[in-house]
Amino acid sequence: MAELKQLTSRATNYSQWYNELVVKADLAEQSAVRGCMVIKPYGYTIWEKMQHELDRMFKETGHQNAYFPLLIPKSFLCREAEHVEGFAKECAVVTHYRLKNDPDGSGVIVDPDAKLEEELIIRPTSETIIWNTYKNWIQSYRDLPILINQWANVMRWEMRTRLFLRTAEFLWQEGHTAHATEQEALEEAQRMLNVYADFAENFMAIPVVKGVKSPNERFAGAVETFCIEALMQDGKALQAGTSHFLGQNFAKAFDVQYVDKDNKLQYVWATSWGVSTRLMGALIMTHSDDNGLVLPPNLAPIQVVMVPIYKNDEQRTAVVAKFEELAAKLRKAGLSVNIDNNDAKKPGWKFAEYELKGVPVRLAMGARDLENGTIEVFRRDTLTKETMPIEGVEQHVVELMDAIQKNIYQKAYDFRKSVTREVNSYDEFKVEIEKGGFLLCHWDGTPETEEKIKNETKATIRCIPFDGDKTPGTCMVTGKPSKQRVIFARSY
Amino acid sequence: MAELKQLTSRATNYSQWYNELVVKADLAEQSAVRGCMVIKPYGYTIWEKMQHELDRMFKETGHQNAYFPLLIPKSFLCREAEHVEGFAKECAVVTHYRLKNDPDGSGVIVDPDAKLEEELIIRPTSETIIWNTYKNWIQSYRDLPILINQWANVMRWEMRTRLFLRTAEFLWQEGHTAHATEQEALEEAQRMLNVYADFAENFMAIPVVKGVKSPNERFAGAVETFCIEALMQDGKALQAGTSHFLGQNFAKAFDVQYVDKDNKLQYVWATSWGVSTRLMGALIMTHSDDNGLVLPPNLAPIQVVMVPIYKNDEQRTAVVAKFEELAAKLRKAGLSVNIDNNDAKKPGWKFAEYELKGVPVRLAMGARDLENGTIEVFRRDTLTKETMPIEGVEQHVVELMDAIQKNIYQKAYDFRKSVTREVNSYDEFKVEIEKGGFLLCHWDGTPETEEKIKNETKATIRCIPFDGDKTPGTCMVTGKPSKQRVIFARSY
After folding, report:
1. Complex ipTM > 0.90
2. B304-403: CATH homologous superfamily?
3. Chain B contact present for A92, CB below 8 A
4. Which of A226, A291, B110, B340 is such that its CA lies 20 to 30 A from the CA of B50?
5. Which pTM value belongs to this model?
């Protein structure tokens, strides 16, 4: 059975490794509906843990959850000129509201009499329906700010889909806030970017670069898009979250004005921000190896698994009893523990299975261990094992959670650092981009140059980073002045 | 301002009272999309609390969450003959996957070239897509049981909609389980019915009758539908949750078989069970009064509100400081507390507002109270207030939570009891049904008699109750034998 789960190695075919891992580790699978996935219980549990932490962080920063309709009238999408260009094209369109029995007796057909007067679009994002609602909620400065988040499913009719990374339907949260001033909205957009970075680094153990998108990569309808960019093990970038300063664009499109303290009418300032099940893809690709998933302890559904080794029922009972004792202590310390007592599977099969599933720590114990008072402790991140005294092992395991969390972050950080480099000429760029990683380059700030680079090399500007070197220079393509280096990479 | 929030009384127009209350208490409102609601933050917070408790109960009974696609291929709905009759008619149909710019330059139109080969239906319920998935998950008895729940939005194109009670889109959870034996599936369906009853009674403070539906009221595709039925203050019944024993219907429709221990192929047994945002309607209508919402402490977003009364800043500071001290103690005891320190609103306005919002306990304190060491404690459920020593008030408030939770349950229980009565003739039935309540009547067990009663009186069989009198009798309409009394009522 262990053989069946064997993964293609990353070196052989990274893309195939990813696709196999998602399915074999029971995270998700393709459904019967093109581009839509089934998120399986093990994958969904990780997503729930992400939701739980993010939701707590949103509430701690003053946000409340609400729920807005799934369907958006077609005309709403057209109100904001750039927004419709970005979102109204590849989307699921509801045109009818009834089926009827097929007169020829086989199944059902769409009832032509039940055609909607105006088509409805399954939300690709909810700015339009939400700002149409906010119009009725906002009259005075006393009604501001509005700080709302929504957990929802959205749909974008992608042509090429991959589990978690790009699916027609995906799950996400979208924050939509309304403010009296430009300054307040800008601060909100940056605050939420910081929340995302904090979450990525401290829970997902993924180092991210915070920055601002170039105009070509900006959200359709935004004035500025802030983002966190992560780097995957194959050297490709992945946008892990975005926070948009929307200016007054949606307020103007939906005529949302408020009376300020001086009794003057003003348009409202807006932000929106979101992360999605795409984060699952980032999590998988950042840490996992050829044996399977590597999960950060802060998000692992099972943090410790215990595998008893025995030759007979008597040994089994004794070892499991000792495990129960240890598990009680670990659970008291807040860890999630699973004792795999299944007699139908061999220890070797279980070892491979929990490695595949990314359980951070595995404990194994046999009759001899019991005699000697020892236990085997296996770390998923380093694939190392150590035999140590049972006495006091719980403290060691608790500390390992923290150690593993830090180690996988550091490993990802070191990897990113090792493939982040300055490139100064376009010729060099064309060679270097093939090797992957983040390339720090001077760019003249024009969409035309960015477009040319993209067409010729498939690389885009991932962001103009907030931190780091701000020395001006000259564009590697045009030789025109550049304010600072920006990050180029190929991306997911 | 307080006047603006004045509700129509229940006696004047119960239906209008409900509609106004939902909007004025900031629970939900109509959206721009016909039949779809916006759930506002205050309403959504109550729903989140419901979700939190239910999710915990599902997990404690061994279930895991997962996520299945929003869209269902039209042909899937037709696989189960009764299911398609019940669900495939009034539903949202996706026919296209792209919009394009209108050649005449105004907005976007549906791109006729982007017509789907097979139409997709927005899920009205997910049995079909889930059983199509389970087919690949189940080979052997070792793969069973599968115990999965999904939190999701669903859509049924209802013609007449009311906030929470009947909306085109609503939020719900749907459990879908697969079992090796009939007995196990039946037990599961009953277990989840008990979970629902436990939740309704202990968290929502709503007494419910557990029973089984008559064939006319059964879920389309089920062998048996178990339900919990609640009674609203206007004497109408509301189905608060259903749990279905699906037999092998969906396993046969989607060809889901497993190899049993004797190496024989068997069809899998199934259940499904769900509750929805409709529960919000039940919660509102069971307890609330002409002053607004009455919320059970176990689900109230704010359990205690503190309103300072003062004539100057000095008094305000002193009172608020005392409140802060008390709030810290109450929060430590696990209560959610809000100190309304807003200087722009008068205490009278705040009193009306928190009554409208159903906050279980309100504490008010002024300068004189501070001198005397007293505080005013107001109970939302009884609308009574009491001045008592501040010393030790936190213990009293903690106990009030329990007292209020029990009192509103008892009040609803007593009301239901007072309008539940035996009716023995159809003539009497026609008179009594106009008065509302649960009517316990003998029925001959045929769909025809039930249909006749429904057509003539608008009453349906809410359930054949599990508990209570099982004495046989004769049908009030046909005089044929009846096994036991069943519950008739008009319903939401």
Report:
1. yes
2. Anticodon-binding domain (3.40.50.800)
3. yes
4. B340
5. 0.96
